[in-house]
Amino acid sequence: MVKKIDAAKAKVDNLTHMRSELASERHKVKQSLEELNCRMDSYEPKLRDMPCEAL
Questions:
Q1: Backbone angle region of 44, left / alpha / beta, with phi > 0 → left and psi within -120 to 50 → alpha
Q2: How far is it, in rounded angstroms, from Cα 16 to Cα 32?
Q3: Residue 54's CB: how many other CB atoms inside 10 A?
Q4: pLDDT confidence bin for 42, thresholds 50/70/90
Q5: Chain centroid to CA 4: how far?
Q6: In degrees, to the nearest 5, what angle opens at C-alpha 34 toward C-alphas 15 and 36?
């Protein structure tokens, strides 16, 4: 019984750790997207409206 409890605790700890890493990664992606949007705003409207293939 104690082994099962320890195994369950280990799983919970692992899941908590994975969730924390995922949240951190999500935050980094959000920051990158915000930075990219700010950089895009600095371009002229003509360039922003052009398709990527044309650039």
A1: beta
A2: 24
A3: 6
A4: confident
A5: 34
A6: 115
Q: How many CB atoms within 10 Å of residue 7?
A: 10
Distance CA 13, CA 10 (A): 5
Residue type, 55: L
Confidence (pTM): 0.62
The total number of residues shown for the chain amounts to 55
Residue type at 52 in one-letter notation: C
In the chain, what are the domain boundaries? 2-46
Q: Report d(CA 36, CA 41) in Å as an integer.
A: 9
